[in-house]
Fold:
Amino acid sequence: MTRKPGVLPLAITGACIALCVVLPLAFHAIPNAGNVFSPMHIPVLLCGLICGWPFGLACGILGPLLSSLITGMPPQAFLLPMAVELAVYGLATGFLMRWVHTGSNYADLYICLIAAMLLGRVIAGLARGLILSPGNLTMAAWASGYFITSLPGIAIHLALIPALVMALMRARLIPARYPGRA
Structure:
């Protein structure tokens, strides 16, 4: 997980942006599955963790924008709040992975993921409530939309993303953070 500029981070970021378009298509075949499982969050969080904050930030902005242009999802009314949330995810995971060093891959991944997911939801709620649609977002609506409805997705993200990162490290497709440790 070194932060060397090169082809690998660009390729991974491109793949993650493509997944931001493809994953929601699969989930939106099931009614309300996009809101519940938040499939676009997975590639953005992965990109930030693996490639660092500049790439994670780019993925968080470009992923929902391209998905909206190509598929119409997210709809224009939700594009800006979602782009804010995902941009914070990519930025925060990448930034935190640079600074959090517990000596355990899993501890680092969970600390970074949980902090980024909380920060992204708080900042997106503030952006919606104060800037994008001032006065139209209550605390109950924010908690319901960003936490309660998406609880299954949060659980899936916390189970899936560290496992994917660790599998990529074991396969030596990305550099090991702590060689020889879990």
